[in-house]
Write the structure tokens for this entry.
Amino acid sequence: MIIDMHAHIVPEGFPTRGTRTSGDGWPLMLAQDSGNADLMIGGKKFRTFRDTAWNPTKRLDDLPNIGMDKQVLSPLPELLMYHLDPRDGADLATHLNEAIAGMVKERPDAYYGLGTAPLQDVGLAIAELERIKQLGLLGVEVRSNVEGANLGDERFRPFFRQAEVLDLSIFVHAYGSTVTDRLPGLPEDAINHLGFPIECGLAGASLIWDGVLTECPKLRVCMSHGGGVLTQMLARGDTLYRTREAVAKLLPEPPMDYARRMYYDDLAWNVPTLRYLIDSMGASQVTIGTDYSGASVRTITPADEFDALGLSEAEREQISSANALRFLGVE
């Protein structure tokens, strides 16, 4: 069995904008005669989606085409709209969470669900965690930063503490690159390809060095896109931790020890990079991902990937499904 840990949904529609404070920032779906729909953000077309983005049965029919048996559903990261008015953000999160819960309820044999929370207001975000738990979802997806603020910022600590109390997992998705001013003149796609690995690395480093994983030792965290540059960043930090007293005072344990408690999807884009991730973090911490929202971004099948990595049967079983189930808390 292969579980796709990194797969996104878009709902078929959204509540009407009406007189919401967020105005044009509120998302909208424009249906097409073909059955597809255009997602509009900020009054502009973001992307056209097939009905597999929201229809659980048609989506399930598509899974064999991408080599997957089950999926962990999470919102499209563009819909984690931390810039919205807090109340609008809470309404959007509730709508997304109910949409995902509905898909899981319709096909519990095929899907697990992760929700979202309005982190622009930590109080509202904590309230949404309670609703996520009640809906039967297993965790929450968060962006790699909250409008430029690190996930390790003290203001978000109550959110992570409550997620740990509720036994909800955290899936960190790269988004909103904070290095765009260092890459002037590049098109958005190029900035994403360069910025996302950096975002993942910074988000993971913040969770470690700012003390979130120290204060929340039972919190389960999965980093998207192989954790980006986190492994490379921590190699130096781990050495300094072991050789410099001033650095060692910052954490009770070496930073790489914390990193090895987190999980990572395998979207590292080539086999040598993935091999380095597995060698650094362990085969017990890596999962399968497609970044599916109607199509997979994978360039290699899991079977071919496993062969190229030279994995044992036990390692194949771990990465195929066991690690995802452990991350979700349903092992």
